Amino acid sequence: MTASTITPAIPFDDPEAMILPAALAAYLHTSEAVLAQERYRRTGIPYVRHGRRILYRVSDIRAYLDANTERPGNRDRD
Asked: What are the pLDDT digits (tens) for 15-27?
């Protein structure tokens, strides 16, 4: 197994843990540029700015994933 195929573990057991954009991008199978665009557009996962550093709180990641989870058969039909 190569390093590029390993997804970093997000410590979901610690809701106040802070995650760097690189780790979140790898976990979501996206890029840091996509996360940057979402921040610019004010969409996506809430983040914390600490000086010039961007951090994502685990509780915000979990809430975003829960709010954006699609469940089969739950769509309203016209």
From this structure: 899 999 999 999 9
DSSP state at residue 73: T
Q: Please provide the DSSP assignment of 3-63 as one string.
A: GGGPPPPP-TT-TT-EE-HHHHHHHHTS-HHHHHHHHHHT-SS--EEETTEEEEEHHHHHH
Reading the block at residue 5, the tokens are 């195929």
Question: Would the pTM of this model clear 0.90, i.e. be above it?
Answer: no
pLDDT band at 9, cuts 50/70/90?
A: confident
What phi, psi does 59 have (nearest 5°)?
-65, -35
Report the amino acid identity of residue 76: D
Q: Could you give the angle at the alpha carbon of 69 between the alpha carbons of 66 and 71, nearest 5°?
A: 130
